[in-house]
Automatic annotation (TrEMBL):
Name of the protein described by the UniProt record: O-acetylserine/cysteine exporter
TM spans (from-to): 35-55, 61-81, 88-109, 115-135, 142-161, 167-186, 198-216, 228-250, 262-281, 287-304
Intracellular or extracellular location(s): Membrane
The UniProt record lists the keyword Cytoplasm: no
Predominant localisation class: membrane
Membrane topology of this protein: Multi-pass membrane protein
Family annotation (SUPFAM superfamilies): Multidrug resistance efflux transporter EmrE (SSF103481)
Length: 319
């Protein structure tokens, strides 16, 4: 007789998810995977500074569309997608391409990069809570405490910089929610390689964001024609560095570990963005930023704390 407790749960896409080993299910990763996650966060933190510089020369939504066009041009010709994968990838193009990045680019036009990084990281606790509610991933008292401490750190960080206008604040909150939902979708999309997902979701996102640019932005093509090398470098970095390299590694990690093991690393993004802003574009450090950053690091340390009764993490089998 089969042990029903070992059955793999079937989710919305009709495929079983991979069964994680006890360390992976509990939110543990090998050291190399932790270093990969930290590398991605550094790339993303620098990307917010790059976007802020780029939209000074290219309209935000059009710049986002150009980013996805470059990603699709580089990846799609070499990658194939099956018919049964299209539904999930289309959904990723909406939640990740349009809601997350399209609205993030638009909000950055009237927001400071550090402030935007703080607000957008609300997606991390949202994703963690959704993983517990939807995917039944364990949270635990210590991790919950770390989550609350990290959110408190985000709140302290937000007090320092000037908050964006109400519309930009709303766009950032929707963008954060889109990022959180995307993490759950990617977790369930078994059988889709990270680069395939990135390339084809970018292709499907292009018409969505171009439509938004056509509705909300004026003089967009004139600004593209007059953009200097700084603007085009920002497009290239955002496409290759943030999308292909950053999200390629991130999706790879999500398909091998629980959401609660991977997503908390993203809560270090505001800290790194603030540091990059001070070093690269001359943002003034403030006591509130420093205090908030320290609180956030303490919260992330609690979230990632290894339970004593679990062995060292090993790479789980994947479907």
């Amino acid at each position: 007789m089969r042990d029903s407790s070992r059955r793999r749960p079937r989710l919305m896409w009709g495929r079983p998810t991979a069964v994680l080993s006890p360390p992976a299910a509990a939110g543990l990763m090998p050291l190399t995977h932790k270093l990969l996650a930290l590398t991605v966060i550094c790339v993303w933190a620098l990307n917010l500074i790059v976007i802020k510089l780029g939209i000074a020369e290219i309209p935000p939504m059009l710049m986002s569309a150009l980013r996805f066009t470059l990603v699709a041009a580089l990846l799609c010709p070499a990658l194939r997608i099956t018919r049964d994968q299209i539904k999930g990838v289309l959904l990723v193009s909406l939640t990740f391409g349009t809601l997350h990045f399209g609205l993030l680019f638009a909000a950055l036009a009237d927001s400071e990069a550090g402030t935007s990084a703080v607000i957008i990281q609300l997606g991390a606790p949202i994703a963690t809570l959704l993983a517990c509610l939807v995917l039944r991933e364990p949270l635990g008292k210590v991790r919950l405490a770390g989550l609350l401490v990290s959110v408190a750190g985000i709140g302290v960080l937000a007090i320092g910089p000037t908050l964006p206008p109400p519309l930009s604040l709303f766009l950032l909150l929707v963008s954060a929610t889109g990022w959180a939902v995307t993490n759950l979708i990617v977790k369930e999309l078994r059988g889709v390689r990270p680069m395939t997902m990135m390339g084809w979701s970018s292709l499907f996102a292009i018409p969505q964001i171009l439509l938004m640019s056509w509705i909300f932005e004026s003089d967009r093509w004139w600004m593209v024609g007059t953009a200097g090398w700084h603007g085009w470098f920002c497009v290239a970095y955002s496409a290759i560095g943030s999308s292909i390299v950053g999200y390629g590694i991130w999706y790879w990690l999500l398909q091998r570990h629980s959401i609660n093991a991977v997503v908390p690393y993203s809560m270090l993004n505001p800290l790194l963005t603030v540091l990059f802003g001070i070093v690269l574009i001359g943002d003034d450090p403030s006591p509130m930023k420093i205090v908030g950053a320290l609180i956030m690091v303490a919260g992330v340390a609690l979230i990632l704390r290894r339970p004593r009764n679990l062995p060292d993490p090993t790479l789980p089998d994947t479907a």
